[in-house]
Amino acid sequence: MSNNLAEFKNLVGTKFEMYNSLFTSLPFHRVEKTGILLSLFLLHCEEGFRSSQSPAEIIESFFKQYTTYRDEKEQTDLLFRFIQYSERQVVLFDALEDAAFGKTHDMNGAGTLKQLQTEVVQNNSQQQLAEKLKDFSVRMVLTAHPNQFYPSEVLGIIHDLGNALHRDDTVLVNTYLQQLGKTPFFKKKKPSPYDEAVNLIWFLENVFYHSAGSILSFLHSEFPEAVKGHNQLIRMGFWPGGDRDGNPFVKADTTLKVAEALRGSIIKCYYREVRLLKGRLTFQGVDTLLASLEDRLYNNLFIPGYKADLSKDEIIATLIEIRDILIAKHNSLFLSKVNNLLNKVNLFGLFFASLDVRQDSSIHKELIELIAEKTSVLPKNYSDLSDVAKMSALQNINSLVVDTDLDKDTFDTLLTIGTIQNFNGPEGCHRYIISHTTSALDVMEVYGLFLMAGWKKENLTVDFVPLFETIGDLRNAGKAMTVLYQNEAYQQHLKRRNKKQTIMLGFSDGTKDGGYLMANWSIYKAKEEMTRISREYDVDVVFFDGRGGPPARGGGKTHQFYASMGQNIANKEIQLTIQGQTISSNFGTRESARYNTEQLMHAGISNGLFTSRTATMSRSEEQLLQELSDESYEAFMVLKNDPDFLEYLNFASPLRYYAEANIGSRPSKRKAGKLNLTDLRAVPYVGAWSQLKQNIPGYYGVGIAFEKLAKEGRWEQINDLY
Hints:
Elements: H1 3-20, H2 31-50, H3 55-66, H4 72-104, H5 113-122, H6 126-132, E1 137-143, H7 152-166, H8 170-182, H9 193-222, E2 234-238, H10 252-278, H11 287-302, H12 312-329, H13 335-348, E3 354-355, E4 357-360, H14 361-374, H15 387-395, H16 408-424, E5 431-435, H17 440-453, E6 463-468, H18 471-486, H19 488-496, E7 500-506, H20 507-514, H21 516-536, E8 540-546, H22 558-563, E9 573-579, H23 581-587, H24 590-609, H25 619-640, H26 645-652, H27 655-658, H28 682-691, H29 696-699, H30 702-711, H31 715-721
Parallel strand pairs: 1-2, 1-9, 2-3, 4-5, 5-6, 6-7, 7-8, 8-9
Helix pairs in contact: 1-4, 2-3, 2-4, 4-7, 7-8, 9-10, 9-13, 9-24, 10-11, 10-13, 10-16, 12-13, 14-17, 15-17, 16-17, 17-18, 18-21, 20-21, 21-25, 25-30
């Protein structure tokens, strides 16, 4: 048994048995009886399953054998109490896992920055590291996908319970378990987009602020020549309040309100840290500077009207002055604490996390055609023009849209981006993501809308991010980007944006459209092609992966995924979404957040330093994967196109209840009307199959492809490829 597994059994398994016994002593109605009956119910279910009994038969025989409950209401009440009891047991287990994370994971082992340090020294690669870190970064984008079933109150209890368990404070643990027993696990109403944002800002404030800061401090300490203040090694992104794709509740004022909350939250973090520094930096010449900075932060945080009265540069200048005085006059006392804060200010600025705006391309297209019909900004026959002619008209727009009967919120949103940049800094909101991008025209239509809203070409401080999702769009992505790079107006825009193009790939919708293997292979091939094309046009391309938790939505071993990329795929940056429950499960504590962030950083950095960077696969291996993908795709499409496919899912699974559950703010479909696979969101789609214990999106078609090639006597090839 490995040391980590032994530690897990000791710190999580054994402690769970011990603390689980506290549940039966909680002062709640029938709690002891519930715990005992639940254990009997488990054994009875296992026995019934072995005897091939149906679920109804198992439950009916359980009530007859172990209870006196004959009334349906009493029986239903007990089953609900089973669920409530089990939910709280799961929370206890989660909290124990969080508390033991640092001991059940090797914080200095494989995939950590400590290992990177050893590798760099052993290979004498300090200079190569400095070169790599000039433009390398990891960008983690937090999203409020509706797969986080714990309400914020329960997440808070898990956090506090984990801390109490870490200290073995049994009295406090018992108190939190009592709180847990009285706290409902369901939300009484749907959260608003702003509620979702506030919930995720908690993680920024209490977890990522500290974990990212400690990572940067380690790198600055170990590689002072390689890591400078301007290195953007870690970046946080944010979707709640900015992502309006299929969510009619996200408006321009929502986006602005969330940006203000992000700004207020990071200033609060700085304010707390400055107050702690005041207790240590009590020296002449330093104390007054720190007191002045504290006042400035306080005014911007608590006094209305001061929100534009502070800048990142001002905070940095003050901290550098304090640092210089400590070095010159006070023997560098507490210098590391000042440097730690300086690193965080360089990292988070006044924006904390960059707020992305996202909308579906069809919304822009409808609005553009309406503008052409109702105004003189575009030709009246716009909808009849070729794509080339449409793009020409869009890039030459020189008048504003002032018709208030048109989609006012869209134009308000475009102007709000500028407002956020003024208050939070240019990084506060600078990316516009276009869902379901099918062509270069989809990008240029958004470019044209910005011009109509009043933005000037030379001052357009926004990056346009096409999102390719379906198999067809992924196959066409290279052509779309070629047309875009050849467009003169877009070329000039890219020059003003440092010749950097971000492209997003949608794993969830790709898998929904073409099955697991075809989606992943199509994304890989699209990345290869777009890397080659971008290099031809001297553009630095960055890929932003929209990955979820389960394999059916792009999940898996993230470290291995990024470490495996060959030289044929651009890897200057790692960008990915951290969605819903994945945030609390993989980044819920400072230790787990640091560990998993380091895994990402190590994958990207070491892949450029210590691998040969040769092609990942030979031509024959690529041909084999293409053949497997084609076979699996064909099998998946036969199933997907069955007239009863969606009807079966809707009838047999809880799919129709997702829209009624108070989990997230956005509807389960992008558009109202009859249910269809195109508009159905990936989360309820994958979640519904998971509830059936039929992981169709995660595997279907792969086995059929394997079987076909195995019958042809080619299993050894597949095995070698694996």
